[in-house]
Specification:
- The protein has helices at about 1-10, 15-75, 95-125, 135-160.
- The protein is mainly α and about 160 residues long.
Length: about 160
């Protein structure tokens, strides 16, 4: 409607109709191009957030779970050295591996909720619109977490058994 109003005001002012239509066409093409460019930029943000939350963070949580398991196993077999003048001493870890496991699960779920809200805000402008992404994010995230945990545990089982 704005374009029509501009054309009508140009005609009533006595402007050249052909030039006016060509300029309007060029302006509309530029507007369409800018809209597509903005959409592609938003899509890149959506893809980055989705990959970081669904693959990156569960992979790191799976790796950290294995690291705690391995360090607990290794350090439980070391003898305690008391009264040593060394700058670094190694002692047993007083954290439960089940706590780390459940901590990882809770944080993966929390990250998925927050990421789905951010995805809704970025893509549609409303946070609630992103809740439709939550089940997919949660399924992929937990799958990646357990796959990484199982694969790394089986790979390092022979080394640190």
């Amino acid at each position: 409607s704005k374009t029509i109003k501009l054309i009508l005001s140009g005609i009533s002012a006595g402007g050249n109709v052909a030039t006016l239509l060509e300029e309007t066409s060029t302006s509309m093409k530029n507007s369409d191009f800018m809209e597509k460019k903005a959409t592609s930029n938003v899509l890149m943000y959506i893809i980055f957030i989705f990959l970081a939350v669904s693959i990156g963070s569960p992979g790191l949580f799976g790796l950290s779970n294995l690291l705690v398991d391995v360090l607990t196993t290794i350090l439980s077999g070391l003898p305690e050295i008391e009264n040593s003048n060394m700058p670094i001493t190694l002692s047993a870890i007083n954290i439960s591996t089940t706590f780390i496991f459940y901590f990882s699960i809770v944080f993966i779920i929390a990250l998925d909720v927050m990421a789905s809200l951010v995805l809704g805000l970025v893509s549609k402008g409303k946070e609630k619109e992103g809740l439709k992404y939550f089940p997919a994010l949660l399924g992929i995230s937990l799958s990646i977490f357990f796959i990484i945990k199982i694969l790394l545990a089986s790979y390092f089982k022979g080394i640190f058994a």
